[in-house]
Amino acid sequence: MTRLQAWKLTAIRGGTSHRSGRQTRPEWAAIAGGPVTTVHVFGSFDLDHDNDCKGRFVDEVQCEGSHFVVDDWSIREVADDWRDKAQKRISNVDLMFVICGEDAEGAANINNEVALAREVGTPYLLLAGRPGSSTKPRAALDRDRVLDWNPGLSWAPVGAPHSKGTVR
């Protein structure tokens, strides 16, 4: 079972968000024909190079019928208590999307956020923000795959039901 398939299984229920404990509004979706919980996400991206990818992501997440709500974004590591703030933000969401651009491998904020997500147990998905030139963050595990991000199409690996995206 892929990470995305496992996440979908946990998302197909109404009531309370499984990580944050916040009350969520059940919505009816075509997936399994039942209620789906709103999924609270943290968006991690290279603050210096990928603001355009962040904009594309916001457009997709805010579209009608989306079950994602972006609660927080990457932050600059300037404050002394940056780590504590980031850890709290990441632990309070259901899922973290990591937008991988050309410089994601060396982006300090992305690598720190991926490490924090693993530390607090928040699942994350790596999305290729720049297909063909995206790099995988050093903090990601060897088994983590970067999913091709095709606007309007699924982020599931090839071969998964209803998938038109690809995985590298």
**Individual helix count:** 4
The ordered string of helix (H) and strand (E) elements is HEEEHEHEHEE
Please report the distance between the alpha carbons of the first and last residues: 17 Å
Supply Rg: 15 Å
Short description:
Helices cover 26% and strands 18% of the residues. By secondary structure, it is α/β, with parallel strands linked by helices. β3, α2 and β4 form a beta-alpha-beta unit.
Describe this structure in words.
The chain is of the alpha/beta class and 168 residues long. It has one domain (3-11, 38-148): Rossmann fold (3-Layer(aba) Sandwich), CATH 3.40.50. 26% of the residues lie in helices and 18% in strands. It contains 4 helices and 7 strands. The strands form 2 sheets. The chain has a 5-stranded parallel sheet, sandwiched between helices. Strand 3, helix 2 and strand 4 form a beta-alpha-beta unit. Helix 3 packs across helix 4 (108-120). The chain is globular. The chain starts with a helix and ends in a 20-residue tail after the last strand. 29% of the residues are buried. Mean pLDDT is 76; it is low at 1-18, 23-32 and 154-168.
